[in-house]
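Re: fe (ii) ion structure - here you go.
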Amino acid sequence: METVTTSLQQVEVAVSDLNVGMYVSELDIPWLESPFLFQGFVIESREELDQLREVCKTVTVDMQRSSDKPVTDWDHVADEDYEVAVEHELSAANGVRTTAHHLVSGIFRQIERGQGIDGDAINATVKDTVDSVMRNPDAMVLLTQMKNKDNYTAEHCINVSVLTAAFERYLGKSRRQIEEAAYCALLHDIGKIRVPDAVLNKKGRFNTEELALMQSHTEHGRDVLLASHAVIKPAVDVALAHHERMDGSGYPHALPSDIIPYTARLVAVTDAYDAITSARCYKGPCSSFDALQLMYKDRDRQFDASLVERYIEFMGIYPPGSVVEMSNGEVGIVLSVHPHHKLDPRVLLVRNRYKEPSKERIVDLRRKAVDSTGHPYRIESTHANGNFGIDVKYYLKQGLLSKGFTAARPALVS
Ligand SMILES: [Fe+2]
């Protein structure tokens, strides 16, 4: 089929002649009958090319908005930086997370009943978590945004384990080191099972006695894990020392910085990040950006400063799952971040400039997407999950975030 020029920029192109990087401004079928979520997009992958070839004979390409040369396709990027693309990892990551949830809840029950901890089950879950993180860490990191207030301690343990594994991967640690750190992180708060619910869930400030009870979770954690011969020794150290501080003012032993084990310093960072970005009974969630800022302020006193600095570099300003407000007032959720272009993520827009729910569509800041007035989209600010009535978990459940990667993919989260 011949290519027809309909204007200086608008060119009708046979689907067989399309390339990755071309900007498709119009289809030869109604958009609503197509699997594509939005009108006007850059072809980013071979998968999108195949989808277009399945449903259309020709499309109109805007040459001005198309790249001069084919844009690197994300599958190719994934080949270079990650073993698989994030959209291919989300389903497996969700399965691992569900298993981890059953595991941690089961461990809590076993401890309550005075039973032993199943060491083999912990090993298997940690291995599956690290397998997923090694294939592509963005999938499991995105799922850490599925905060569940009702089951905070279990969710928090899983999130800290995932963030620790992904961070260690970023730091270039060996597979064995990553697994050990993820294992320790998964069990770091296990001692909270011995803290009364009335204290764990208290909304106001702790009195002296309550504070002591809360802080005792570190020593309870050590005791519970020591009593279980199925648990590795570093996990005992991390449960005991993850609230020690670099200025020597931590608990339970006010250890000097050079005595605090590396993995406890590491988990102190991921623990704080997840806690600050989560909604609790006594506080609302902070945005990732605000959490990183708070941690940076405390980098010398509370944390290992070099680890906090590397963690900020690792998370970037807009980690997957962040709620962001654009310069034109529209609001969206960060879908994915290219490893070499962390300031230009892909965003699923879900609110119009009046903050009203809008038809979901995706803009890719790396592709210089423009709004309805022709101005390039820019991120103005980041917000906590829950702001503007946006619950990231809802969009995960609807499968919309996965649609952001692959239009026809079904919902993933049960
Ligand atoms: Fe803790």
